[in-house]
Design goal:
Chain lengths: ~450, ~450
Amino acid sequence: MQHRVVILGGGFGGLYAALALRKAPAEVTLIDRRNFHLFQPLLYQVATGSLSPGDICAPLRSVLSRQKNTRVLLGDVADIDPNARTLSLRDGATYPYDSLIVATGSESFYFGKDQWRVWAPSLKSVEEATTIRHKIFYAFEAAERETDPERRRAWLTFVIVGGGTTGVELAGALGEIAIHTLKHEFRSINPLEARILMVDGAPRLLMAYPEDLAARAEESLLKLRVRVRAGVNVTEVDDDGVTLRFGSGVTERLPAKTVLWAGGVHVAGFGSTLGARTNAPTARSGHIKVAPDLTIPGYPDIFVVGDLATIAGRDGKPLPGVAQVAMQGGAYAARAIVARLKARGGTVSLPPFHYHDRGDIAVIGRAAAVARIFGLHLHGLPAWLVWLFIHLMYLVQFQNRVLVFIQWGFQYLTFSRGARLITGTAPTDSPQLLYPDQRL
Amino acid sequence: MQHRVVILGGGFGGLYAALALRKAPAEVTLIDRRNFHLFQPLLYQVATGSLSPGDICAPLRSVLSRQKNTRVLLGDVADIDPNARTLSLRDGATYPYDSLIVATGSESFYFGKDQWRVWAPSLKSVEEATTIRHKIFYAFEAAERETDPERRRAWLTFVIVGGGTTGVELAGALGEIAIHTLKHEFRSINPLEARILMVDGAPRLLMAYPEDLAARAEESLLKLRVRVRAGVNVTEVDDDGVTLRFGSGVTERLPAKTVLWAGGVHVAGFGSTLGARTNAPTARSGHIKVAPDLTIPGYPDIFVVGDLATIAGRDGKPLPGVAQVAMQGGAYAARAIVARLKARGGTVSLPPFHYHDRGDIAVIGRAAAVARIFGLHLHGLPAWLVWLFIHLMYLVQFQNRVLVFIQWGFQYLTFSRGARLITGTAPTDSPQLLYPDQRL
């Protein structure tokens, strides 16, 4: 019987593992809860109306259809028996494995205040992105119809919690929406009245970046009328706004109908279960501390890659939860499995996983980005062009690349955002303002 | 004070009315529940994974942003006082008007069995289209994992209720999905096992088309493995399938996890309220019987255009509920208002509304369509090319035309459907099969 490799998750880690097993003499099964691979780095563009979900998603079956040794299954893994080497799905089905690659990722962390999620969606799934899109564009619509100045001001106040890459990208896009996209479009409000505030408890934004680049990013955000408040914590989020606590201990209530969450992540769901069943060492956030070969200590047949794992880089600091780490981890796990298969039970000494850090890049707006790449610190147009090129290059499927390229071209020329539909429901829709019929 | 024109609805009727009032010396307000114009004729392509919602929607504000005499409001009209000439919105706001153009359309009609809607979504909104998309592609995923042959067969059985243009287009697209798109993608099932059945109580499909074209359409559908059952009524729809009653009176239970509704329409909501408040004559389906100038008898300041109105064409039969009728009606109402404004209270004799029938066209699949155009009956490739050209031409906004054209090009060359995401929830998700996390 062929060696059975099961991969959990079709994100960057899982998909690149599957692709790297293309020619492996193994029976590969990729299980995901979704039928598509999501190109997460561009999800903020769906949330801000630049791209449609279809543009940044690739059906997993279609990506892997020609890979004859691989099957794709839609399913949600609930539990694992690491000694019997079986997985059980939530619907009761069980799947045995010989080697397992777990790439189920992480979830947004609300500092233990999960009730905030209702008012402050984060940016992890397509559904959350369209919810954020709903909230942003609905807020301007509601403001246009609101006659009370205070309530109007609350509709036009946007708070982004978290000053990492996602927060910076969301804030920059919001600034461009207020300044450029919606220009000429309203008759009662001026979209420039929008107040966009980015808060983070850390001493500055983009902590993962060198200080000079973070300063450049803040400059670019200021030009887009985004105010950055570092060292500020959020102590409350509800339907009407946020409560902020400043470093001095002073608290302030800020009425805001749109609060977006770009805070940290933690491990929950199957990731936690896996940690418990294998007694794996975990970080405080629940991330599994893997061995240098990305396996769980004591379980050489279970690889953990991407956002679920934590492992120190060469500088001793944990590797960041970015696509590059996941892709390289997935490919490494696949190579390790192939090497073991070739050794036919003999000893295999694979060098430990080594992350090739190609840098970091965050986009703020049109011709505005910051990048640390090949040891260089770039900002402005050069960084932005690098960003464009990298994202187009790594987008899965050629069709998506063409569609995204064209939409960026249109947006660059016309400042328009063609995909800014208000669909579905958003949790803070004010009941007194009517929104679309939601029978379905 | 300027003459106040209020337009209700941003579909084909309302949008074309607004555009025709571009230079009118009037204060124009367009109110819609959605912030976008939906190009309804291509909605079935969203439902079948060819296009993304953003590709066929145009933000109303963006379309009308340069039209200085026009404002757009997001709102849901609840009631009207036709004597005081005021509208009240569901949130309590009121808007006065001097002239009113009502283009709020119609709703899917479930023969009075509204509970069927849960199991058999229709194709009226973006949300319904993505629900249908979910159901179609989820059914294949569920079948792939189902081991019981009978349940697997139910997952692979698709029933389309209604043999009009929408039904034919959905059925044809489903056939192409089973034959082409999903080829090579599954390991347990063969997508060709899918049974696609289109039923209609009428004696044949496409009753609005000449008989020879309907026969051609049925031939094309057969090639796509779609079986057409005319003269068959649906007497029950539930979670597990449909009950059919044949002309002979025999009933048959058909297990099917995917039932799509392409039946008739009726008037509900504000359309009914308007009819009641103005004592307007209505058809059995609730459509308002308008005067030859598209106004409500006794209310020369209220125009009703598009799908909400019914009016006889030259042959005495009611005009169909198609985009062309709505567009021409909207433009006619706008011209009538402008003519009255020019007459400054003097008498205006506008010729009655006359519909320029440019024909009918329905697409079945690749190089397969039927068309009645300029008195010609076309089918196959010529009809399909005409269809392509017309739909691209009438799509609102240039960017949408480019995006749709490119996606059709890719689909033509590769048979792929890039937008086939399973997102959100679908009502018949079987609880024993796990589907995406739905916290939001």
